[in-house]
Amino acid sequence: MDFLIQRLPLYLDGAWVTIQLTIGGCALAFVLAMFFGIMGTIRHWLPRAISTVYVEVFRGIAALVLMFWMAFALPQLSGFRLDDMFAAILALGLNVGAYGAEVVRSSINAVPKAQVEATVALNLSWFQRMRLVVLPQAWAQMLPTFGNLVIELMKATAVVYLIGVADLTAIAQNMRESTGETVIAFIGAFVLYYLIAQVLIFGMRLLERRANRKLGRTPPRGGGMRLPFKPASAGTTQAGGI
């Protein structure tokens, strides 16, 4: 225990790097997922083809290989070296965004066709249809899978130390090499990864409840469904009763 307490600031520094990688990767993945996912639902063949190419290419490449490419191969081809942390965020965002794009596309397509046809009958523009009707319903369906992808992205940050980023795993590895305490060194990383994951899970569940509550799929916070009348208590007579 003293080992972990004495080195807690170093672990917290590594955890902060992991959190930054997770936030940056999730932000990029979300933008890419929404953009290419919506493109995949457009009727014209060209946007769908562009979306399909992005999804199939980056979903088929391992995140670690993509990370090595961004950090080591790209500088040799372009002569411009990316910051290691930015390269990691870019690789994670591109990889997870490809999975997210399929989630967005399938969620939009799952919205009942009758509601989409109703918006057309109301002469709403494509943008109005998406913003007011389609995306609010699709959003509630996306969130459970998005929650899984966020956790997977956070866990995928554990390999960024291989390109020189001093994340939580790198700190634990350095502690193991410098002290020889393998079990204790990685217990610290284990606990912090678990805590970060629980915070992310809690946040995604709050988003799910909020989205479902807006659609009327769950009762409002603080109570169950209210009845439109007050039920009569035992022993009392109702109007018109005997």
Written description of the protein model:
The structure is a single chain. This protein has a single domain, classed as Orthogonal Bundle (MetI-like fold), CATH 1.10.3720. The protein has nine helices and no strands.
Count of helical segments?
9
Strand content is: under 5%
CATH architecture: Orthogonal Bundle
Domains counted in the coordinates: how many? Answer: 1
Mean of all residue-level pLDDT scores: 86
CATH topology: MetI-like fold
* Number of DSSP E strands: 0
Q: How many strands, what sense, and barrel or not for the largest sheet? A: none
Low-confidence stretches: 223-242
Class of secondary structure makeup: mainly alpha
CATH level-4 homologous superfamily: MetI-like
The helix/strand series, from N terminus to C terminus, equals HHHHHHHHH
Please identify the top-level CATH class: Mainly Alpha
Instruction: Bin the helical content.
Output: over 70%
N- and C-termini, Cα separation: 74 Å
